[in-house]
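Can't paste images in this forum, so I'm doing it all in text. The chain is below; anyone willing to post the predicted structure tokens underneath?
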Amino acid sequence: LKFKSTLTLDRRNAVNTTFLDPISTAWGRNQYGEASDNRNMNTVLTFDNVLTYNKNFKKHGLEVMAGSSWTDSDYSNSWINGSHYRSDLIQTLNAANKISWDNTGTGASQWGIMSFFGRVAYNFDSKYLVTANLRADGSSKLHPDHRWGIFPSFSAAWRISSEKFMENLTWIDDLKLRGGWGQTGNQSGIGDYAYLQRYNIGRIEWFKKGGEGDSTDYANAVPTISQANLRTSDLTWETTTQTNIGLDLTILNGRLTFNADYYYKKTKNMLMNVSLPAGAAAATSIARNEGEMVNKGFELSISSKNLRGEAFTWDTDFNISFNRNKLTKLELQKVYYDAKTADVVNDYVVRNEPGRALGGFYGYISDGVDPETGELMYRDLNNDGKISSSDRTYIGDPNPDFTYGMTNTFSWKGFNLSIFIQGSYGNDIYNASRIETEGMYDGKNQSDRVLNRWKIPGQITDVPKANFKLLNSTYFVEDGSYLRLKDVSLSYNFKGKLLKKWGITRLQPYFTATNLLTWTSYSGMDPEVNQWGNSGTVQGIDWGTYPHCRSYVFGINVEF
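Text version of the structure:
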């Protein structure tokens, strides 16, 4: 019987100050000097308690676990800006003659979550294994009447290799069939007070004097208050139900191991921020349980001990994953547009709707450069003789057909070498960076590709003229498949009587190189990027995204 308590404090206090002097910076000259002071503090407390009981008797094994977890978060921030300095000698806001009245304020937010969980695991002779889990979670982000969610899960496994009818198959070391079903809850992606009705506050220049014909009483002005969203009285947990079946196989005295999994995941009550139609209410949005989504796929991993010698060994680990995603249902808002790129285009490039995978690129089909005008030719899909928004269609899919990775590990005497490669195949990238570097619509520096632009009637080229009609189109969609030499590590383990005499149990210098080489047809700086970070609804958009860096690390591990 074991009991464990853990109390964790995560405290962050940030102060960010800026100063643009009124002489040497262009923006500073426009504002006669500008400064800001932004501060925020975040405190997260977590208190976990877990009680575990283990008992083995004869061929039976039993484990029972119960516990609780409590998390509380408090956040506060403040910001102030000032401008119009007398000189650049004093760089504090005290020296600013003008403190911004409409870009200064404070904020605060809190959230908490409480969880209770339990597990019972039983195995008979390590041959038949059954596990049942149950957890209850309550989140402050959800409506009090629907705050708690109950999420069960079950799994079972049968070690076939332990059966008597397998005794003659000596080349099979382990064969296990397993399956499971379970539910998990999600409360992220929405604000801390998502179910409440909130308000926008607009401050008025109380110090302003009304001019002739202005009836506003600025001397008695009070902040304006407007409705920001609609209240959600039934906001509850987003729930994902997953079913999976798997097979584990080890053969040839542990030399070769296979692990295969098929899974089907259905997500219901998806938490989404829905835009309201104009005129429907004073508010512009509502957080609600809006839709459903399905993910299904297959994963395979193989581990091989290729060579086993006294001085030299070689191991290989390989994995590959296939996932298919589909948005199956939306209730209030049937189509979601997202991801505006360059201002000159002023249109969304991602469209999400039921029946399709998340993150699909939406725009026009480009049929090359018109030799007579130098403009990109966009396809008239509805055959009405003109190019309009009704000619847009899906032009790319950021979801890969499959992703994969492989690690080879070599050991020779005291040397150890590990080489890791990984990649993706079949995904598209919307290279919005090319809008800026090939658009030729302003004074930005351009790539040398524009040297081949169309210049005279009759010229055959795949680069349009300067200041051509820019639209989101297949012109900017590229194949994002890649293979990357992700990591190479080399180390050496020193041994000797002198080290033992000094009490050193391990002396290992090492060298690691990351992101050494990438093989891809993508023209951008890095195919493994997304301007929208880890967003699930917007993927594969490169808009000036900082690429993965190549790094070299030398170090030494010493243990006493």
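Residues 433-438 form the longest helix (6 residues). The longest strand covers residues 60-85.
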